[in-house]
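[job 4471] stage=fold_predict status=RUNNING
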Amino acid sequence: MKKNIIKTLQFAVVVLILVLFVRFLAKDKPVPPQTEKENTEEVIDEEKFVSETEYKNTSYGFSFYLPETWEGFSAIEDEWEGYSLEVTNSSGQVITETGPLISIRHPDWEYKSPRQDIPVMVFSIKQWNDMNADKFNIGAAPINPSELARNKRYVFALPARYNYSYYTGFEEVQELLDKKPLHTF
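[job 4471] inference complete, writing structure tokens
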């Protein structure tokens, strides 16, 4: 009997955490008007893509090629926060840096059944260098975001532990990222 109560409580806690996390991810913020979604049949690299859907962001200068199964995707712009490693206040860590966090969302994503997003953090070159010089950190993970690509103005990165919730499609997203679908201009 106690085991059933404990399992029920554990399940309730897990569900509550998932609901809160999904609500956080579901905050739809408009993508800058310069952002375009384009469907294209052009083959970039036959070994990487047979045909694809393209997310193109002219504000930051990058494109992200997606497989046909992602046609109808959405892009949600949020913000990452960087915390000082030296300064704190009475409420905890102090935010010293912020930047865009663009999540590319699968068209089958639903509130009751979320799928793995593709999060792309955008850093200025200075922010990237400062983070790597331990002037600030992002999140609780002892691992910095990993670089996906860069252009003359920005570094595009994948958050550490972005897929640790193991949402449906996390393996597909990893396979897609292994093909290096982010290209800069």
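[job 4471] summary: Confidence is low (pLDDT under 50) at residues 18-22, 24-50.
[job 4471] exit 0
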